[in-house]
Amino acid sequence: MEQETPQPTALIVEDDDAVRVMLERWLIEDGYAVVTCASFEAAKARVAAAPPDVLLTDVRLGAFNGLQLAILAKQHREDTLAIVVTAFDDTSLRREAALCGALYLLKPFTIEELRESMRRSARVT
User: Fold this and answer.
1) 92 is in which domain, residue-wise?
2) What is the pTM assigned to this prediction?
């Protein structure tokens, strides 16, 4: 009997409803089981309960920062692919993301750019 490969999981953390829905649709099309959160607090609880294979998070999450969430996700599951997205190209933030083991992706981006970032990361790790 052939054993089925489990479906990879993705957690999307984005406070903009339209962006969150678009990212959810993209990742579902790519075969992910997707959970979405609109706030840092909800995402923090979700990461603790079920660390995802992929964390895709906005940088600005109210009083919190998506990098804090990436660090938390990696503490719960070291191999989580963390991707922080932002509309602001900030060299310091880009460097911090790299130090946290997270990819840094500038908005707006296409599904192809997201896929390529994920593929590059998979080759590096």
Assistant:
1) 9-124
2) 0.92
